[in-house]
Amino acid sequence: MARDDRLRWEARYREGAAALAAAAPSPFLAAHAGLLGGRVLDVAAGAGRNALFLARRGCTVHAVDIAGAGLAAAARVARREGLSLHCLQADLESLPLPDDHYDVVVNIRFLHRPLLPVLRRTVRPGGLIVFETFLADHAAAGHPRNPAFLLERGELAQALTGFTLLVLEEGRCDDASGPAWLARAVARRPHGLG
């Protein structure tokens, strides 16, 4: 499965990685960027639109994705602009992440449920998780339709139990790409939470 995913994403990024890297960041991420700083992990970074946005704001960003073609486009932009962006092609389903390491973890429009506890641990106490992905309601509107990639209502809040929810939104969110049904959160890991 991971190999098929990698090949599919590699093909997509070979065709349009430069345009995708130049795309605007997630509006949700941009709206909360004032809270974010320091060492950032961007999971499923794709062509790096969110990673580049945060690196331009002075963050040191580690961008991870299964497809190297998108990361290569982001790395070219980062080199040209002198940004602190470090790209790693890896399968997030098997990548070990350090505990208590990042000031911010960004997960935009990606869902692999077994990764959620790992993300909780890799953000340092006092650090933030910015999470946005599709709700099950979105299946009627388009891609993705696979329940494995869709959260149920309330599931994101449950996954972040013990964190301080600074922002929690669920429902229809319209942006430049059209209507989408999303679960979105900005959550702070409290000190003393193991």
Task: Name a few traits of the molecule.
single chain; 194 residues; alpha/beta; 7-stranded mixed sheet; 6 helices; 7 strands; globular
* Rg (CA only): 16 Å
The proportion of residues forming helix, as a percent range, comes to 25-40%
Residue stretches low in confidence (pLDDT < 50, at least 5 long) are none
Order of helices and strands: HHEHEHEEHEHEE
Derived from helix and strand composition plus strand pairing, the structural class reads alpha/beta
Q: How is the main sheet built? A: 7 strands, mixed
Instruction: Count up the helices.
Output: 6
Number of strand elements: 7
How far apart lie the N and C ends? 32 Å
Q: Into which percentage range does the β-strand content fall?
A: 25-35%
On the 0 to 100 scale, the average pLDDT is 85
Q: Note the overall shape.
A: globular
Physical arrangement of strands within the biggest beta sheet: 3-2-1-4-5-7-6
Offer a quick outline of the entry.
This protein has 194 residues and is an alpha/beta fold. It has helices at residues 2-22, 27-31, 49-56, 68-81, 116-122, 155-159; strands at 39-43, 60-65, 85-89, 102-108, 123-134, 164-175, 178-188.
